[in-house]
Amino acid sequence: MQFGKILLCQSLGFLAIIALSWFDEIIGLRSLIFGNNPYISDFRESAFEMLIVLAVWFIVAGTTQRLLKRVAHLEKYMRVCAWCHRVGADHEWVSFEEFVERKFNTPTSHGICEECVERHRAELLEAAAKQPSLPLGDIETCPPRAH
Fold first, then answer.
1. Taking burial as the number of CB atoms within 10 A of a residue's CB, which of 4, 20, 21, 32 is the most buried?
2. How high is the pLDDT of residue 99?
3. pTM
4. Number of compact structural domains in the chain
């Protein structure tokens, strides 16, 4: 998982900081670079530095984890074009039917709900009343009403 890699790299970075802090304390990196300085090694100072780094690490890791969960949540939303109603899937825009078939391996079919039947029947009756020569057929039985 990509989020696991991010947290792993972040954790390795903090562990490297801690390791360098202890490496500096053990070999006296400061005296190797700057010569024999009267610096006295103090492991309590390194332990305190390590605790500070650990505290920052836990804060950063927790914040990163919350942010990554939020991003994952937002990425789950289905993007639908407001104009053509196609769905954004795998870096391309496809019809809703194609999206459902790809994502859920479910073929689609078309039908008409009761509300649309009634709305279109009313529209057809209104159009027939305005223009009596309109060939509508038997509008009362087509499509059949649901009971």
1. 21
2. 84
3. 0.42
4. 1
